[in-house]
Amino acid sequence: MVYTPAPKRYERSSLYRRCGKSGLKLPQISLGLWHNFGESDDFDNARSMLWRAFDLGITHFDLANNYGKPGGSAERTLGRILAMDFAAHRDELVISTKAGYDMWPGPYGDFGSRKYLLSSLDQSLARLGLPYVDIFYHHRPDPETPLEETCGALAQAVRSGRALYAGISNYGPEGTAQAAELLRQMGTPCLIHQPRYSMFDRRPEQGLLAVLEREGIGAIVFSPLEQGLLSNRYLNGLPDDARAVRDGRFLKPEHITSEKLAKVQKLDALARGRGQSLSQMALAWVLRNPAVTSALIGASSPRQIEENVGMLENQHFSRGELSLIEEILSSAPHGA
Ligand code: NDP
Predict the structure, then answer these.
(1) What is the pTM of this model?
(2) How confident is the model at residue 196, as a pLDDT?
(3) What is the whole-number distance in angstroms between the Cα of residue 243 and the centre of ligand 1?
(4) How many CB atoms lie under 10 A from the CB of residue 91?
(5) Buried-most residue among 168, 267, 312, 315 (CB within 10 A)?
(6) How far does the centroid of ligand 1 lie from the alpha carbon of residue 227, in Å?
(7) Angle at 335 between CA 329 and CA 336, to 5 degrees
């Protein structure tokens, strides 16, 4: 099969937002390869998702060293598909990877040392078959390694040409401000932060988004659909092909409580009243804040990606809708 990208893929100019105060624009919806791109997943489905995403104007694919089962296999899958289908389009793509979680045995395959970060980046590039990635992230803060060393490794990744930009993920407001200052001093400013943010996880509102705005750093928020909970996926039970059933490492059936489902049902009704699906409303909601550059989704089919990009049709929230959402999110179980 030969892939020819849709000629009209850049027609939706409203899809792109500037990442902080940088020169880089990212699509409001980016695609992450954490799930469904590993060695044990359906390769043809993975390929179709990347094709559909690119045809819809999604130019950003996000990875980490440990994505896929086994860890590293999502990078290998993307590497194969890049070589087969996207070789002529590399400069139209923003590809990111990360290091920070447990990747290989021994003291050098985890956390935030220079030793770990730079050797992991080399391994990622080999799996991806690329000479450089666009963004290299430190995946999580390391309480033991001096931040100067971690930021120095990110800066070195950029200076050596192995990454175009540096990013951080899962850092709190204070660590973010410190890393931003260090990276600025090193001449390789922090482009982007990747926090978890959704209607069900509001932590970035407690200071982080304000720091990012002040520092001119973009935010790409992960799990904006709470791994599928903020969609119609679990409204009628637990489908066999859904993440909570198929994988269960991170989203477990017991996380899908009746309390959460009651809220999801109310949010779904509100979304339908707005003429959109719940996943579309949940994405528009994280993107309502101008500090958020992109919502980083996962998907298990091309159709889900299509539906999610459809959120562009209605990104506006009235004050009434926003307060109704707050009311639903803060409501006690069973309306008590
Ligand atoms: P989401 O919250 O978007 O969840 C994705 C899942 O939601 C899909 O796999 C699918 O579940 C379901 N879904 C998506 N769209 C629809 C739809 N339209 N209708 C119904 N169900 C839908 O994000 P993820 O949790 O997957 O995370 C996204 C990305 O964020 C990752 O791939 C990764 O790149 C990044 N990430 C970063 C982390 C970090 O520490 N920096 C941590 C975690 C993620 P199903 O498979 O059941 O169909």
Answers:
(1) 0.97
(2) 98
(3) 9
(4) 5
(5) 168
(6) 5
(7) 115
